[in-house]
Amino acid sequence: MMNRMIHRRDASAASVTPGETADPQGAGGAASAGATPKRRKGDREGIALALGGGAARGWAHIGVIRALEEADIPVSMVAGTSIGALVGGCYLAGKLDDLEAFARSLTRRGMFRFLDFHLGGAGLIRGMRLSDRLTDSLHGVAIEDLSRPFVAVATDSRSGHEVWLDSGSLVLAMRASYALPGVFGPVDCAGRRLLDGALVNPVPANVCRTMEERMVVAVNLSHDLYGRAAVVRLSARDCDPSSPDWRERRNPEGRARRENFGIVRSMVDAFNIIQDRISRSRLAGDPPDLSLNPRVREIGLSEFNRAAEAIDLGYEAASARISEIRQIAREISGDRD
């Protein structure tokens, strides 16, 4: 199947179908022939959601959606990156209740049941246990089967191109979108090796724009991680362990214990910084109509057992701006009438 380019403002974004190079009749195959056709671009009522990446902080997306449902604000489409693709896909598949129950049930010890460590591979975790859990829940659902448009954003590891997965296996699209480099292995698709979409587009508001949606609401989980960009000047003398007062300068606040900077922590910290800086740049260049910024900074990227807190924070962030969402929607509708 020839890949078609659908992002006219950025030729690096390609739309591909997950599973098209694998067994076309299997779980990663193309959509069923009876898929319901989508309505034309731009004629859908409601808001388009751009759900950003953020690992465990992404449970906040569930709270955002709950607040929108409670306020009877319809969602016309979802574009998701990483955990945003996972939550958004389950929502459009009618499985948000199941996902929320699963998230709330996770404990620190229970999380390890889904971590199938695999030394020597492209990632520390194969990710098949989580994938199998999703497959059991979604029963081979294809993106075309969803009631509203859905796009999962991934990254082509060879070319660096942004990839939009808008058809085919929903589970494979999710897996590709959350394939954090070095942690989860990449997903092979149409000759491409796909990694986490947050490498190129952490909060995919531009995807919704390209689909000609009337109103775009983004959910940015890294908004309060680092604050404004700044330059810090230091002396390299402070990096020299042979200096007599090196230990004091290394720990000026007198912290009782040393932080553990293992390989995974270093990778996650680096990914956090990349995601924050890219999202700031992308959203400044192609801003949504409104950005929701749940205050999830204190939830660690791997603390999936803190779902209840994250969901509450997402709910609070969206609930506080319901009237603003309605006002902007009215203004946009008036401008286009």
Q: Could you characterize what this model shows?
A:
The chain has 337 residues and is an alpha/beta fold. It has a single domain, classed as Cytosolic phospholipase A2 catalytic domain (3-Layer(aba) Sandwich). The protein is 33% helix and 15% strand. It contains ten helices and twelve strands. The strands form two sheets. Strands 1, 2, 3, 4, 6, 7, 9, 10, 11 and 12 form a ten-stranded mixed sheet that branches. Strand 1 and strand 2 (13-16) form a beta hairpin. Helix 1 packs across helix 9 (307-319), helix 2 runs antiparallel to helix 5 and helix 4 packs antiparallel against helix 5 (170-177). It is globular.
Short description:
With 337 residues, the chain is of the alpha/beta class. The chain has 10 helices and 12 strands.
Approximate helicity band = 25-40%
Mean pLDDT across all amino acids: 80
Q: Ranges with pLDDT <50 over ≥5 residues?
A: 1-11, 20-40
Overall spatial form: globular
What CATH first level would be assigned? Alpha Beta
Q: How many separate helices?
A: 10
Structural class, judged by helices and strands? alpha/beta
Beta-strand content estimate: 5-15%
